[in-house]
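We store amino acids, tokens; thus:
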Amino acid sequence: MWRGLSALAIQAAWAPHRLCARCSTGGESLIPRSTIFALSSGQGRCAISVIRTSGPASGLALRSLTALQEPPPARKACLRLLRHPCSGEPLDRSLVLWFPGPQSFTGEDCVELHVHGGPAVVSGVLQALGSVPGLRPAEAGEFTRRAFAHGKLSLTEVEGLADLIHAETEAQRRQALRQLDGELSQLCQGWAKTLTKALAHVEAYIDFGEDDNLEEGVLEQADRDVRALEVALCSHLRDARRGQRLRSGANVVVTGPPNAGKSSLVNLLSQKPVSIVSPEPGTTRDVLETPVDLAGFPVLLSDTAGLREGVGAVEQEGVRRARHRLEQADIILGVLDASDLSSSSSCSFLDTVVAPLVEQSNNSGGSGQRLLLLLNKSDLLSANAPACNTALPPHLLLSCHTGAGMDGLLQALKTELAAVCGDPSTGPPLLTRARHQYHLQGCLDALGHYRMATDLALAAEALRQARRQLSHLTGGGGTEEILDLIFQDFCVGK
């Protein structure tokens, strides 16, 4: 049916199919769109591979490969023989799904081909699609970008989708799924409605301030709404770092005097030989890092040099780096030798590291760096002997050699990580990116200008600025540079 038509004629036939896309200034313009195709499932040999298209020529592509006069029923899987549109050579028997726009992921006409996952089959079908006029291979993230342009996803939902694809732990998956479901977007939309209502009240007072028909107390109501919104924004900004830690990983640093068992603990927690374990003091002379999934939370676990003085230049540099890394830690695992707590190195560690951290935690109400003090080598203690004769802060007994006490340590770590990263299953949605924090802070600053304004016109402009910041957060008026940055981590086919 279509083989005798030129590419120009086909494009003219599909000319009514155009995409309403946001331009960089936040407005909308009708622009023609090409049709894209890509392998959306993983590369390599597998049982099933999913190839999909999006764009006005998706129907043409489906007809070209299946020799159908009409597409199959919408959103219903049908078994069809795929043939090359030029040679007519059979390619594969495939499950075919037709998603006419706008009821599709991208908002455009879409086709999914579920083919057998052999490399030759996938390559043949992709080559066949490439021979259809008007089709081209998709770029990375282009399907999702079209969904955003069609208003199918807000920008925060796009970020949630990216985080879901890259999630490696249970907590990351839960948080990303909540953001993809639109919880953060809906929260921002609720705030925007509050600002719109307050702005309407202020502008009504400007226009009809002397009108007897104007409802009393409109300015007071606007002030109350703005104050309540300021409280909500401050609350979310205070928790902004938790969401970012949940997305990128919390910094957990293992520290202590030499030969306390730090490297053994790192190897045990990471379940792989990250650090060299030796009875010789000062084996670790640099910071060794490894990403770890601890109790479902993402963690960057760091092994550091043993803290002591009077050592050589190389080890002393390791000690300096260890102290610097301690300053960046979210959670510190302080490790001591339970059988040698009276040694000078143990006492020095308790005085110079543990005591200041405990004092800082008490003064900050537990909002600063978090410390778990571990007494390792508990297997060397006699059954009747106390662990130590000195008063110690709350601590856990552990044996990296036998594994005793590991369950208690993991449970304590889970509690600390939940406090540091937030619980993705409960509470309000977290801010997972610095961009979120930037726009919410901009909104809060604008509300501050509203409170300080002595002129109603200036107050109204401050409310507009605050609303504009929320619009930027969810995607309205975003620049192309920001969009390119967000979509750069998407894979081809998504």
